[in-house]
Predict the structure.
Amino acid sequence: MISHISTRILFNVRKHYIVRRNLSTSVCLKQTKKYAETFLYSDLTIARTHQPRLKPDENDLPFGRNFSDHMLTVDWSTEHGWSAPCIHPFANLSLHPASSALHYAVELFEGLKAYRCDDGRVIMFRPLENMKRMMRSATRSCLPEFDGPELLKCIVELIQLDREWVPGARNSSLYIRPTMIGTEPSLGVQQPHFAKLFVITGPVGPYFSTGSFNPVRLLADPQYVRAFKGGSGDSKIGSNYGPTLAIQKIAELHGCQQVLWLLGEEERITEVGSMNFALVWINERGDKELVTPPLDGVILPGVTRSSVVELVRQWDDIRLRESRVTMAEVLASLNEGRLLEMFGLGTACVICPINEVLYRGSMVHIPTMDNGAVFARRILENLTDIQYGKIKNHPWQYAVC
């Protein structure tokens, strides 16, 4: 019985506490009825700012530096569950110095965008997929569950309130950052009894300072690993990102913009910086293929990646294959003239072409741009036409206002 309960503690925080209360006295059972298993949009309160922020120039929107007027917060505790959600003026958080997020990285986050269409409408791109992934990350981090669609309704209300912050330029958008942190005021390494969910937004331009769809140079060094089998590489949590900054710095010292992450003795390619990876080549049977690594627990299940997979599967002039790819296979296809394109996939940049890889002291030229980046451009155009509403009434679009 003890072993059974322990398993539920690790993988499902909310259900664990319900089980614990149900095994206690009648007083605890009475408390269980008051426990809020999720927050509800119908309970949302809004406090508008009286000091609106100065909006930045839409032609100068560095990524992640500007923030909108309001934010959303919701608190959670094991005793009461979720509080009512609240939208209020953007402000600093007040945290206990021993909060578990600060010491043990008990936290998670998401990243999605809202886009302004030519007709003035504001839409989001597949936001329910982000809600599902956020729930998976919560389970992995031992943070509380919630109802994803209810959070999405609250986020829509937040965007509607700050709709003037959604920029109108084609390469710009409103970036949305849902985050959940453990706020347990204790230095003990334990699952948190307190947590805070918050959402901030802000207008952004191209992710890279070089602009949109400009090719990047990567450092591929097999001594550095981003994630491994049995780890947390498939969750969107801060502990997957902070430790990569030192390697990013090494890449920059070598004149590279990002890191091409390799794994194991076979040096299989996993991700590009914080993006998913894909290549286009002519396989050994003579077929043109787009290949992207499989979701095997090592890489993050990106929303852009899954969209590209679904999109390319509908095309007749190229095959789609989810398969492991090693550096040796990339070099062999390059030497044989079969490698056509390599690029990263992600919410921040959508499609990022790769033109060089620094590998074992040699700079390897990737002919992505030489070949016109035909498929990378085609994918980018298809996705952005959906995101910015050029294609109307697409099932991946989620209306905001």
Summary: The longest helix spans residues 127-141. The radius of gyration is 23 Å.
